[in-house]
Amino acid sequence: MAKSFDTITFKYQNKVIDNLGFSITLILILIVIGSILSLLMSGFGHSTSFLSNREIFEIVKFTIIQSTISVLISLFLGVFVAKILISIKSRSLKIIFLSFSSVAFVIPTVVAGIGIIKVWGGNGLLNYIEFIFGFGDKELVVFGLFGILLAHVFFNAPLFLRVFYSCLDSIPENYLKNSKQFNLKGFYYFKLIEWPFIKQILPLICGIVFLQCFTSFSLILMLGGGPSASTLEVAIYTAVRYDFDLNSAAKLATIQLLICLIILIILDIFQKNDFSNIQVITIANKGQTPKRKSFLNHFFTIILLSVYFIIVFSPLVLLIIAGVNPELISILKNQKIINVFFNSISIALCSSFLSVLVSWFICEARTNLIIKNKFGNKRILLLKFYNFSILMYLAVPAIVMGTGLFIILKGFLSYSYFPVLILIFSNVMLCLPFTVNIIQSKSIFLRRKHDLLCSSLGISGINRFLKIDFPSLKPVFGFSLGISACLSLGDLSVIALFGSQNFQTIPWLIYQYMASYKMSEAASISTLLIILCFLLFFIFSRIVGGKNA
Asked: DSSP secondary-structure letter at 171?
């Protein structure tokens, strides 16, 4: 009788979690949809538009072109570097390489932009080397399409590398043995052994990266170089902040939302894997003997690794070197800048904790659906509902969401309050695709492992969470908090709308220094931001998450 009662209690508590997860997700979606509609309704109510249809067409065309090229270059570099890395025998070398590649995940976009300028800019390292050795009389121009592609590859090539390394590392031993027996090499080895594992995740990861490039803002704002290299996101920002042209902003937002919606539908069609499996990384040593490579293969390997190093590693190294300058001491003594740092840290902490809390409720509700044996239409629709909420930020322009929320809140709150609220909410939405992804796989594993045992022992509710689930979830909670804090600290998108002398964050301060051509100060603050990101990431992932994080 006690067992029956405990089972009923267990099911009831799962129902409560389901309702909470669904309610939170629905509220988030309604807020986002409300912000979109508020901008569209305000915009279409005005007849004046500063942008012609031809100008809008050129903006849309450039946005699609730069996103497509960014995905293709990142995909090529990520796949082949993953193939090179998987063939390396040394496990330590693999860990070091993947760890340095992971830096791109916690580096703010505004910081990466400065690092790229330090390498590729007019006074950058490569132009200096070209001048010293007399390679040519034409200097590299980092602003425009070239700079945008460099920045996107900087962030996305490591993502492709980690995903495809995980795919290649998951190939079973018997597949590898069979390939040796049949002497599969080159194209046939890739087609018959590697491709079946890569193609499972390829549409999803390409779609996500395309959405990230398509809705990119900070990097385009810094490296675009003018109207000729403007994307939809930057054009919406310009129309709202400088032209006060809500009509043009509404048109551009509608086009961007429609394109993103089409991409999400395509992703849903091709998505066979659960979203929670994207970034599961394993580093195993299967005892493979690296094949003897020809001179051409060695040459190709050196070229690819050199390109990867120049694009991904060198901007960060040069930025840190440039940041250690005489301006650093004066910045550390500047009370105004210190206040900006405390302001950014406070917002980042609120955003990261809210993001993890919301993610946990969503993950628990999704987990209850995933582990059920019933595969009805209702379950499928609910899973799609949760998946849409997770990917929503990638499809909805941050500028659109921020502007829409501004229109909604301006009649209820004082201006001194709602920019902070909008920024925190935007940061939560920014972090959701990552935090849910990190927490989800662990949540499913724990539920399948502990549900029956906890039900039979009568352990449920808060007691189960504190005694059973939380100790196991601490590593992923800590890691999620670290990632969220870094993403929140470095986001420039929404603050670009509301940034002023009275309301500043670190990325906005860096951007202001860059706009004033004070690159030394910008580099110093960027270096401090990098240190702060790594410090928060270490505190959350290692101290909060524990040694197993």
From this structure: S
Using the 8-state DSSP alphabet, how is residue 143 labeled?
A: S
Q: Cα(265)–Cα(267) distance, rounded to whole angstroms?
A: 5
pLDDT digits (tens, 9 = 90+) for 384-404: 788 777 777 777 777 788 888
CA distance 323 to 334: 16
Nearest to 444 by CA among 377, 355, 383, 381: 383
Q: What is the pLDDT of residues 252-284, one digit of tens each?
A: 888 888 888 888 778 777 665 443 443 434 444
Residues in the chain: 549
Q: How many CA atoms lie within 13 A of 387 on its CB side?
A: 21
pLDDT at residue 416 in the model? 67
Q: How far apart are CA 83 and CA 161, in angstroms?
A: 9
Nearest to 114 by CA among 515, 532, 535: 515
194/165 Cα distance (integer angstroms): 11
Say how far apart CA 171 and CA 165 lie, in whole Å.
10
Structure tokens at 465: 């969470």
Low-confidence ranges of the chain (pLDDT < 50): 1-10, 12, 273-290
- In this prediction, what percent of the chain has a pLDDT beyond 90? 5
> Using CA atoms, how far apart are residues 440 and 445, in angstroms rounded to an integer?
9
What is the C-alpha separation between 203 and 192, in angstroms, rounded?
19
**List of domains in the chain:** 49-247+277-322 (1.10.3720.10)
pTM for this entry: 0.77
CB atoms within 10 A of CB 325: 15
CB 260 within 8 A of CB 214: yes
